[in-house]
């Protein structure tokens, strides 16, 4: 199956550390995608503090319970992010997401094509944790810290850790062919931590991570 995708977007920099972005994409006979982002940077205690609000939306083109009927209404992922850099060596991140993805699929994707890895829409939320945290109804909070080892005569090296806690994850609100594990009344809590070190040579990056994820069915 061939799907024709047509994206377009705009970005405006106010030159005062406020940046606005918006984009729209269409896949013929499949989905429309929406994106909006506002980001702002300012000094806090002499160190840079960054924040952003992000909205990712998707709406399918059919309502016939077919394979392409993936969402009921508009699905979305919203995110709020904060970042703080201390003494040029410590990066702190606090981020949160909230997902609405009612329908057959049961989770939100930013891609405009159905086949896995056939395309990759924009998503600025990236956590070094195994789960995507994008299930219907799911809320997630992420905290991460990274320490640059340049003051220890290890330029390019950094170590860090992160933790995510998420709750209210729900399965699809309906399925055309439900399996034995399908129960739309169940919700999931999940958590994940990541310990990592990375070498960032000129022009690339090489990282090693240990990730542990736990799921709690309630």
Word description of this protein:
About 0% of the residues lie in helices and about 55% in strands. The radius of gyration is 19 Å and the shape is globular. The mean pLDDT is about 85. About 25% of the residues are buried. It has no helices and 10 strands. The protein has a single domain, classed as Porin, CATH 2.40.160.10. The chain is mainly β and about 220 residues long. Strands 1-2-3-4-5-6-7-8-9-10 form a 10-stranded antiparallel sheet, with no helix packed on it. Strand 1 and strand 2 form a beta hairpin. Belongs to the outer membrane porin (Opr) (TC 1.B.25) family. One of its GO terms (biological process) is oligosaccharide transport. GO terms for molecular function: porin activity. Keywords: Signal, Transport.
Quick structural gist:
This protein is an all-beta fold and 218 residues long. It has strands spanning 5-13, 18-27, 31-44, 47-60, 74-86, 90-100, 139-148, 157-169, 188-199, 206-217.
State the main characteristics.
218 residues; Porin; ten-stranded antiparallel beta sheet
């Amino acid at each position: 199956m061939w799907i024709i995708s047509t994206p377009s977007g705009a970005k405006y920099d106010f030159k005062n550390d406020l940046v606005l972005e918006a984009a729209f994409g269409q896949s013929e006979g499949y989905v429309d995608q929406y994106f909006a982002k506002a980001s702002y940077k300012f000094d806090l205690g002499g160190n840079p503090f960054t924040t952003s609000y992000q909205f990712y939306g998707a709406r399918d083109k059919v309502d016939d319970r077919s394979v392409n009927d993936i969402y009921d209404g508009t699905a979305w992922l919203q995110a709020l992010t904060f970042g703080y850099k201390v003494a040029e060596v410590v990066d702190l991140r606090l981020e949160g997401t909230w997902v609405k993805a009612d329908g057959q699929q049961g989770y939100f994707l930013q891609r405009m094509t159905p086949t896995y890895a056939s395309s990759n829409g924009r998503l600025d939320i990236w956590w070094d944790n195994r789960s995507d945290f994008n299930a219907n109804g799911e809320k997630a909070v992420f905290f991460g810290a990274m320490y640059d080892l340049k003051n220890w005569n290890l330029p390019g090296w950094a170590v860090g850790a992160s933790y995510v806690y998420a709750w209210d994850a729900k399965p699809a609100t309906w399925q055309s062919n439900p399996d034995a594990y399908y129960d739309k009344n169940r919700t999931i809590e999940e958590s994940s931590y990541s310990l990592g070190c990375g070498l960032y040579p000129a022009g690339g990056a090489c990282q090693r991570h240990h990730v542990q994820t736990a799921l709690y069915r309630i």
